[in-house]
Amino acid sequence: QVQLVESGGGLVQAGGSLRLSCAASGSIFSINAMGWYRHTPGKQRELVAQITNGGSTNYADSVKGRFTISRDNAKNTVYLQMNSLKPDDTAVFYCNAQITTMNGMVGRFWGQGTQVTVSS
C-alpha cells in the first residue's frame, strides 16, 4: 500500500504564505509525477500544480506567479509554496501522485487533505 501524508495547512491572512508538504511512503518503485488539487464545497475539484520526476511543472492560471511546486526525490516529498494568498484560495488541498508500485501497478494515490483557510 502507498500512503501520502500531507502537512502545512492552516489559517492565514490575505497576502500571507504557507508551505504544504506531502510525503509518499510504502510499496513504491518509482514516482512519475506529483501534484496538488484543491476542493471547496460547491466547486469543482481543481488541479493547482503538478511536477514530474524530470522537473517539468504546470500550474493553474489562478495561481501562476504566486505558487511554486517543488520536490525532493530522495524523500519522496512534494512541496507547494503558496505566497500572496487570497480568500479564494481557501480549500482543502489534496496531494496526488502517479506511482508505480513494487508489484508493477501504476496508479494515482491521494493524500488525506489539509485545510487552507485565508481570511480577508
What does this structure look like?
The chain has 120 residues and is mainly beta. The chain is 0% helix and 62% strand. Strands 2, 4, 5, 6, 9, 10 and 11 form a seven-stranded mixed sheet that branches. Strands 1-3-8-7 form a four-stranded antiparallel sheet, with no helix packed on it.
User: How many helix segments?
Assistant: 0
Overall 3D form = elongated
Mean pLDDT: 96
Helix content: under 10%
Order of helices and strands: EEEEEEEEEEE
Secondary structure class reads mainly beta
* Radius of gyration from the alpha-carbon trace, in angstroms: 14 Å
**What's the total count of β strands?**
11
Strand content: over 45%
Features:
120 residues, mainly beta, single chain, 11 strands, 0% helix, 4-stranded antiparallel β-sheet
Summarize the structure in short.
With 120 residues, the chain is an all-beta fold.
Secondary-structure blueprint:
Elements: E1 2-7, E2 10-13, E3 18-26, E4 28-39, E5 46-52, E6 57-59, E7 67-72, E8 77-82, E9 91-101, E10 106-110, E11 114-119
